[in-house]
Amino acid sequence: MMIRVLLADDQTLIRSGFRVLVSSVPDLQVVAEASNGREAVELARSERADVVLMDIRMPELDGLAATRMITADEALAGVKVLILTTFEVDEYVFEAIRAGASGFLGKSVEPAELIDAIRVVARGDALLSPKAVRGLINRFLAEPTPGNPLGPTVLDVLTEREREIVGLVALGLSNDEIAERLVLSPSTAKTHVNRAMMKLDCRDRAQLVVLAYQTGLVRPGVPQAQ
């Protein structure tokens, strides 16, 4: 299956480098390029991209606002946003994930890692590496979240097995790693994850991670039982 990619970055040189890299892979296709957030939203609608590589800092409309607009549009429900940032974790990444972005990468990412990330995001599987999850938790989730926190009763719709698996997703484990931990088949682990996302109305695993910490299912600095 061909994955349609939209590049959104205000720096032509960076877009050019990503375009050459992405276009060199048989199952990826660059369908458009945007130099600001507003253009990114418009092109996501017109070009029907599967994945948007979104720079978080752009003129006219920043990547965070553009991400919110894309993920809030029901007509773009299948579009995944992968945030690009100068640093692996910066002050806007957590808000971007909460806004519906499916993950984030540093602009200095290795070519093979970028290609793999696009494929992973496109299929909605493991979206945040354990390293990225730890950074997200340590930088943001250990601090009080403004607004009304979600109570643990939100998780009442889950079975015990689904709660257990959501906790492991929050630690950054992939379906294969969850399956190995719980002695399940990878397809069974994936089914549990998908059911949990559906029940909790989470767009993808990134939002599942955030919800797991917001509800207190997993707490920063507290290791999950082996």
UniProtKB/TrEMBL annotation:
Give the record's GO biological process terms: phosphorelay signal transduction system; regulation of DNA-templated transcription
Kindly give the PROSITE patterns that the UniProt entry links to this protein. Answer: HTH_LUXR_2 (PS50043), RESPONSE_REGULATORY (PS50110)
Could you list this entry's UniProt keywords, alphabetically sorted: DNA-binding, Phosphoprotein, Transcription, Transcription regulation
Domain HTH luxR-type stretches: 151-216
Start and end residues of each Response regulatory domain = 4-122
- List every position bearing 4-aspartylphosphate: 55
Pfam families assigned to the protein according to its UniProt record, in alphabetical order: GerE, Response_reg
Q: GO terms for molecular function, please?
A: DNA binding
Q: What is this protein called?
A: Response regulator transcription factor
